[in-house]
Each structure stands twice: as structure tokens, then as C-alpha cells.
Amino acid sequence: MSLVRRAVNAAIHRAYTAIRRAGAISPATPGGYRFRRMGDGVSIAFPPGAIFGEAYIEIGDHTLVGERVSMSCGMNPGLDLGPSSILRIGRGCSIGRGTHIVAHQSIDIGDDVFTGPYVYVTDQNHVYDDPDVPIGRQWPRNSPVSIGSGSWLGAGAIILPGTTLGRQCVVAGGAVVRGTFPDHSVVAGVPARRVRGYTPELGWHDPVRLGTAS
């Protein structure tokens, strides 16, 4: 590589690093003011994904949001969604790049929740009540989602409406999750099921063998 190409390459990388730093959203930037609450030390990396409905989004202290993460409340920007927040992300979380969190009724993500890249979390889905109407034109249905503190969601996991994950749960990469799972569950598969659990009495165990899987 010639000296000129090296110099140009280095300049491009320095410029891109500066752009990323300048473009990040934090409590001190104009973009941060639009959120209902953005805690100390929060950073949303540049470039962001689709972000709208910020007035209904709360993000706890020291949470890091990766590049191209989409966070939205409602069908489109500017809707009146009521007096309360709809999407709540706790403190100390790390949201992996390319993740989509789409809230219409209620999504609660606890403290210290980490996700891999390209996770999808939603509390709304289209129904299939009428077999003669295109599914995308049938009115969607909401059901709240709760993800317990200390949980880990693997790359590409999908969390569907009506899901409740307890504390310190693991969701395997690519799992499609719906239902209620107790604390310390390991959840995997399509559809996801509880493949490992923990209790003080049994320690780590196979819930399928014991007949306690969800």
C-alpha cells in the first residue's frame, strides 16, 4: 500500500471514529432530551436504527445501546399513547447491534440484561382470525412482555407478545420464545422450551426429565 493510500485510509478511519462519537445519543445531546427518561451514562451508538415514540421510552443509568438498534413505541411517530411509558429498559443493560424492540402496550426489560446482535422483542403481532383476509391487514393484538433482570438473550432470539422471563434467564441464539418461564431458566428451540433450570434444592437440572418444563 502506497504512503498516499495509507494516509487516506487513516484519515477516513479517524473521521468515521469522530462521526460515531459525535453522532451518539446521550442525555447531554438534543436527541436525548426527547426520551421520557435517559439515565446517566446512557449511550445509543451511531448510526442508530429507527427510533420514535421517545416520549414513551425510559432507559436506566449506564445502559449501552449498539449500532442500528431500533426502539419504537406505536405504529408511527407522533401518536398519543397515553400518560405512561410503554418501553422501559433498566440500568446497566447492553443491547446488541441491530436489535429491534417494538412496543405498543408494555415491554419491561430489567436491570443488567444483555442481548446479542439482531434480537427482536415485540408485544404486538398480527392475528389470523379471518382466513380470507390478508394477515398483514388483520388488526394486531397486544400482550405485555417482561424480561427479568440479569438475563441474557442470544443472537437472533425472538421474544413474542405475552412472554415473561424470570430473573437470570438465558435464551439461546435463534430461539422463538412465547410463554412464562421462571427464574434461572435456560430456554432454547423453535418454539422455545425450558431445557435447564436451577433451584437451591436440586441445583442445575433437566426440567424435562423432572416434568417441570414449560
TrEMBL record:
Listed GO molecular functions?
Answer: galactoside O-acetyltransferase activity
State its Enzyme Commission number(s): 2.3.1.18
Specify the signal sequence span: none
Q: Which SUPFAM superfamilies match?
A: Trimeric LpxA-like enzymes
Does the keyword section mention Transport? no
UniProt keyword annotation of Transferase present: yes
**Which domain of life does this protein belong to?**
Bacteria
Q: What is this protein called?
A: Galactoside O-acetyltransferase
InterPro entries assigned: Hexapep, Hexapeptide_acetyltransf, Trimer_LpxA-like_sf
**Gene it is expressed from:** lacA
Which keywords does this chain's UniProt record carry? Acyltransferase, Transferase
Organism of provenance:
Nonomuraea coxensis DSM 45129
Q: According to its UniProt record, which protein family does this protein belong to?
A: Belongs to the transferase hexapeptide repeat family.
